[in-house]
Amino acid sequence: GGWDNGRWGVIDKHGNWLADPIFADIDCEYHDGLFAFYESDKWGDDVPLGIYDVREKKVLFQPQFFAVSFRDDGWIEVKVYDEQLGRRVEKLIDRTGKEKFHSIYTSIYCWKKPYEVMIRDKKGDRHGLIDEDGNVILPCEYDVAWSGIDYEHKRIVFKENEKFGVKDF
Known about the structure:
By secondary structure, the protein is mostly beta strands. The chain is built from no helices and 17 strands. The strands form five sheets. Strands 4-5-6-7 form a four-stranded antiparallel β-sheet, with no helix packed on it. β12 and β13 form a beta hairpin. The termini are far apart.
């Protein structure tokens, strides 16, 4: 990062500007020429982020995301507010904004396949599984403890009516 006249930019290890200091604040994550920036210098869950491409020297997305994370496979995880659902959802988008699949999920955990997904709303936290294309393997109906999904044996440990059960998928 670099700072000039109260604005942030990105510099290389020699001090050359890669992104001019035009941002109120920038996120610390930088990946494959991309970084997220804030529209104000107040961080928080309600301060939208945009995405800047250093190689193209342009803003890819104006501030609109409530979280941004860059993945090694090229997809970008973003959180947005979904008016229809009345809550935030996580999406996987490419550099053009195209979604990998339509998401209704509060969280998408992509470290293993199939992906573990969660919906958090008035009904509580419910977990399920989807494949890489967003097809449902297990619907989000289960109250699952962390590590309650056994990928190796294809089983899920869930809680229902204050009792635990095991189901295969």
